[in-house]
Amino acid sequence: MAKVYFSSARALKWKYGDSMPGKLERMLSEVGLGNYFSPKEWVAVKTHFGSEGAHRVVRPVFLRKVVEGLKGIGAKPCVVDTVRIKGLDYLDVANQNGINHLSVGAPVVLGDGLYGKDNIMVKAGEILGEIAVASLIYDIPGMVVCSHVKGHINAGYAGAIKNLAMGGVSSAHRHCGWKCGRGAMHTIGEGDLVWDSEKCELCYQCAEVCPLDAIVFEEGEQLFWDGNTCWRCGRCVRVCQSEAIAMPGDDERFMKSLAEAAGAVLSTFERKKVLYINFLTEIQPECDCMPAADVPVIQDAGILISDDIVAVEQASVVMLQSAIPLPGSATGTDKRDKGDVLFELHKKDYRIQIDEAERLGLGSRNYELIELGAQKEK
User: Fold this and answer.
1) Could you tell me the pTM of the whole model?
2) What confidence tens digit (pLDDT) does each residue in 100-128 have?
3) How does pLDDT run across 220-242, given as a tens digit for each residue?
4) Distance, CA of 32 to CA of 306 (rounded, Å)
5) Which of 56, 92, 79 is nearest to 289 (CA)?
6) What domains are defined for the chain?
7) Mind giving me the DSSP string for 46-84?
8) What are phi and psi for residue 169, nearest 5 degrees?
9) Radius of gyration over every alpha carbon of the chain, rounded to an integer in angstroms
């Protein structure tokens, strides 16, 4: 049975040891990073850099604690994400969100290069066939996956599986384009954009949010979409409040393909060379790739660590499913009733991705929860 270590976000004493950074230090010591990584071994600390305006990412102080823990056993860490917008712009965004070599204590790098095309095709499964895994992640021997738990418009829930699937895979391949990258998960078939001019309010949010400038409005009124350039990230659909833009998709297929892609990424590592840290903090309704961050919908719960991706995800959703919605949030309620907040927000059965990951042999939903209590007095 997998072990999942948990530490609450509550600070019951005014002591550093009871702070979340202090608890994370103790959790990493309890888990034993030396059981997974070796001296002088390169280790990727995989996270999400966020977006300009989306600041609720895993905070740099936590990334630094992971880096310091790895350095403490003699490993050589770097903090990694893959290209979500143009590479140089994305590094600027990381810096704006406080993620840089000074704050985290390690190099901050792009796993698939500045252009997002440094990747290697890896067998994925029945849905995806093959997928373009970022070359750094493919080559590096060890990884700590630091995931910000939150909602997601397609997956309902986003944690470690989504972080690995969408963040360990490039947006596009040098030769087969988006069909071999993240776009293969987001869409069905050609995934062509559909625009309804009668519904369009000409707010231009779709063009502004596009990371590749694939949408322009000719003479300010007629939408033009460059289907060859487009990564099929779906941001344009998400920001269109008049529902004038659509792109074919299937949420169940998307969630199952997330598990497949995560499995493809993990297939490039030897057993017990990947550790997962889920941060149940600032749990907002949407992905960190959006151009804004809404207020949290659930109170901070804490930190979970495991070497089993399915177990850490299962433990995370169990905690979320019994949480109380926060008043004044996207939940639209001020009631104090417990319930499955993320499901009520998105109406997606997000358990599909976890069930599929277990079916593919990535881990087990059966786990033992080991809670780290308050620091004992010396």
Assistant:
1) 0.93
2) 999 999 999 999 999 999 999 999 999 99
3) 889 999 988 888 888 898 889 99
4) 11
5) 56
6) 2-184+251-371 (3.40.50), 192-246 (3.30.70.20)
7) E----BTTB--SS-HHHHHHHHHHHHHTT-EEEEEE--S
8) -110, 145
9) 20
